[in-house]
Amino acid sequence: MSRGRDFTCSQFSLVVPLTAPAVAWLGYSIFLAQSIQQRYTPKTWRCSWGDFEKVIEAAQRGNVADVTAIVHGHAELINRRDQRGATALHHAAFGGHRGVVQALVEQGAEINARDHEFGATPAGWAIEYLRELDGFLAIELDDLA
Predict the structure, then answer these.
(1) What contacts 53, CB < 8 A, 6 or more positions away?
(2) pTM score > 0.85 for this model?
């Protein structure tokens, strides 16, 4: 039997024999991880974090005028993501601010952007907002009846 080596991370442990195919598999896995990281690493933005924080705060408050003014001056903010991977559109949808949502979509916000925490789109955040108000989907109401 060939000698094995333990590879561990926080979610799993794997013993892989140190054979040529195993080394190739490990090298390919590292290559894939690096490729994914490079593809999804946030871009460097020209505006300051202050501008981004302002657009997020305005979206959370439902202030259409402020969101429109900030995004008009800094178009690169429209799809910028916070630490959880959420955009201003996520925050506006969670707050139930239809006017802000409409303004952001008209300015080019990515309507199907997924956050990094749950993989949720702005529509998913809107549903969560309604759940916090004790809202249900129609299918759930049918199940409760």
Answers:
(1) none
(2) no
Tell me the one-letter amino acid at 32.
L
In sequence order, what are the beta bridge partners of 15?
6
Alpha-helix runs per DSSP H in 3-121: 20-40, 49-61, 64-73, 88-94, 98-106
pLDDT tens, position by position, for the chain (145 residues)? 444 444 444 344 444 444 555 545 555 555 555 554 444 444 433 445 688 999 999 999 999 999 999 998 888 999 999 999 999 999 999 999 999 999 999 999 999 999 998 899 999 898 887 888 888 777 667 777 6
Query: CATH number, domain at 120?
Result: 1.25.40.20
Q: Which residues are CB-neighbours of 91 under 8 A, at least 6 positions away?
A: 56, 59, 60, 125
Q: Which two tokens stand for residue 51?
A: 């501008």
Number of structural domains (the chain) is: 2
CA distances in angstroms from 93 to 20, 86, 103, 111, listed in the order given: 51, 11, 12, 10
Enclosing domain of residue 18:
4-40
CB 113 within 8 A of CB 89: yes
User: Looking at the DSSP assignment, which residues form a beta bridge with residue 119?
Assistant: none
